[in-house]
Design goal:
- This protein has about 160 residues and is mainly alpha-helical.
- The chain has a domain at about 5-85: Orthogonal Bundle (Arc Repressor Mutant, subunit A).
- The protein has seven helices and four strands.
- The protein has helices at about 5-20, 30-35, 40-50, 75-80, 110-125, 130-135, 155, and strands spanning about 55-60, 65, 145-150, 150.
- A hairpin with a 2-residue loop joins β3 (about 145-150) and β4 (about 150).
- It is elongated.
Length: about 160
């Protein structure tokens, strides 16, 4: 899977704006300080988020960045996509004739990793920025917990 610091920092910046922004814009230097992100790198990320319509920039005294939408309306997948991140779990290009081994055949585990990528995409689309800020993410994966012969894995562990 390829999710670089750019994608993680974009989510952190958006969560910071949602958590600390309130009614006024959040200055980029405050976000950088709180989140431990290089100010120059954060400026690049915020620029991409602005172009994607996820934040608005306010100039002048008291300026900074504000969310363009309500936190409940911003999906984490959209934040990651806005900074040109791709959740890629296979070495193959989608629809390519050449497989992950550089030949026409796909590796034996291709379907496993391809499905993992789809599950990550589904998960990130199901989580809103509000869910992150309100700490409602922990345990959300248990909604689709695997079942073995009528028992969940948690029940099997007992």
């Amino acid at each position: 899977m390829k999710l670089t610091t750019r994608g993680r920092y974009a989510v952190q910046a958006m969560a910071d704006i949602a958590a600390f922004g309130g009614a006024s814009p959040t200055p980029a230097h405050e976000i950088a300080l709180r989140q431990g992100i290089s100010p120059d790198y954060l400026d690049q990320i915020l620029s991409k988020l602005r172009r994607a319509g996820l934040v608005v920039a306010v100039r002048g005294a008291g300026g900074g960045y504000a969310l363009a939408l309500a936190p409940r309306d911003i999906r984490i997948a959209d934040v990651v996509a806005a900074v040109d991140e791709e959740i890629k779990t296979t070495a193959c290009a989608p629809g390519a004739e050449v497989g992950c081994r550089g030949v026409s055949a796909r590796c034996i585990t291709h379907d496993l990793w391809d499905e993992l990528g789809r599950q990550i995409e589904i998960f990130l689309n199901a989580i809103s920025l509000e869910d992150v800020v309100e700490r409602r993410v922990l345990g959300s994966a248990s909604v689709n917990r695997p079942v073995t012969e009528g028992k969940s894995l948690a029940a099997l562990a007992d």
